[in-house]
Amino acid sequence: MEVFEIILFLLAIIALSNVLNRLLPVVPLPLVQIALGMAVAGLPLGHHLTLNPELFFVLFIAPLLFNDGQRTPRDELWELRGPILLMALGLVFATTVGVGYIIHAMIPSIPLPAAFGLAAILSPTDAVAVTSMAGRAALPKRIMRLLEGEALMNDASGLVAFKFAIAAAVTGSFSLVHATGSFILISIGGLLCGALVAALLIRLRLLLRRWGMEDVTVHMLILILTPFVIFLVAEELGLSGILAVVAGGVVHAIEKDRMESRMVKLQIVSASTWSVILYVLNGLVFLLLGLQVPEVVNVIFFENPINNGIVIGYIAVIFLSLIALRFLWVYLFWENRFSRNNGRSMKEGLGASALTSLSGVRGAVTLAGAFSIPLVLNNGDPFPQRDLILFLAAGVILISLIVASVALPILTRNQAQMPSDEEEKLNAARIATIKAALRFISESITEDNRNASHAVIAQYEARMRRLSLHEEEETGGIELALEETRARLVGLAAERKEIASLFAAGEIPDYVANRFNDSFSALEEALSRRSKMRALLLTRGLRQLSALIFKPREQEPRLDKSIIRKTKLKTSQAAIAAIRAQIVKENRKASLNVIAQYREFIRAISRKDADPEDDLLQRKQRQEIQLRAYQIERDEIQALYERGEIRRDMANTLRKTISYAEATILETELA
Question: Model pTM?
Fold first, then answer.
């Protein structure tokens, strides 16, 4: 019961952290979660959660890296294979040796092998933290891909180097030849093992499909278990479980590309399921890190004879050493050559090197590795300065997150303000959301909704063509969306005024006027406050359900569709007139966009007189399909933001467009 209570409490804290991050967007989410973890650790709850390194790696790191292996673009990583290997292998070992000697020279009480171990565990960057930092800073795409590829690979090299350094500290012996051979075997063996186990699990799923087992739930369960199985098998064989799950993720990504047309429904369910799993795991990683920090700090600050100021100085020197070495490595082995080949100035190369260096934040893998340091040596003596090593590791993690969260947005501010780059990113994001919606609709086609589905698909394909030619939504960004919202509200006010005039003149009954006014109120709320749209959709569904259960159908007034349509035609014309009357130079484009939508709506209503019953069914089906597709678009926007491909303001702009389109869809229900 105690474990269950702890899990529920931590899940609630994760939800709270996201609320706080919305209120304080300038503070990165990992820092918010670490702070909450530290606060929870100080509460007298009567529960103590100890970090088990082995359980941490299999429970958290395995699924997170498996997902990164699936989502990271393979073609782009292959193009950067040279720099990635130089960072993930060369830089890790250079950091282990170079920073290790600095630590030993600065703190002689830490033996040289233990200093190498601390430097090795500080060398890997954290993939989760890197993604979070990218969401707040407009990092260039090639730097982001380098960081992603490095984070996928350097966990394994850093942990292997750490393992051999700590083994040397414990046993007092070390063989470079043996260590090199073991590293090659562990790394290559881990990659091959991960690819093989992943291929076998994919084969199992294909076999189940041939036997007629198309149940998405079964296939989804196998997918969820896959990273854990791969990691445990590799570790049991003495290979790198981390590289194994990365290779398994890449193999599954290739399989997904090949089978997408046949298993689209599974892909959609998989994306939704993994989004929840990753959301929880990412939060727990940093909460657990925060939970461990107070204990480490207490041992050093209050129980250790070393002066606290000196210890903080140690952390600063180690962090600066890591950044300096990383900066030199990136500039000498990548940016300098890239700048020469692309005609860039030395200043631009130095700036890109600084971005790459500061983006290499450390995370929970570092702290989990540090906690795996044994308590005693082979001779029974306590491991020298173990508590100090833990404190230094925790301090470097925190300072790397803080420095990156402050420096990266400042260094990338000029890039974020480049309109051409913003336009390109927004355009690419819109195309990505359309593709996600098209995949969903294609899988959802049945005999009953085939015509409606193809109609929605045609609309999306037309949008795709216009976006490809940059003919739609090309400029203006957030300002254009805001101006369209203002014009839409002007139109709704004019429609409300027209309804009042028609009712006063006796041209429409009260139930028609009430129906229109209720719709206008809901739409005005949705347009004014984007966060209300989902609540509006939920309220609409609950209202329809309650009416179906509690309200006898014969007591409802019989709706005259012709009156509804004629009324909507008049209100739309009134809206067009009102919007046209307030057009000025600043809002001309947005106002004309809204007028064009009203005119298209008028044409759609006019066409409905041909076959009302058939058109009503088709319209309802199109609305239902379109509303579900909009949710898929929202999910894709969130995924793009989490991967760092768009900034927060870009994501909000895209969501605003969807909320506006949803409001229009809901309004068509009147007619």
Answer: 0.62
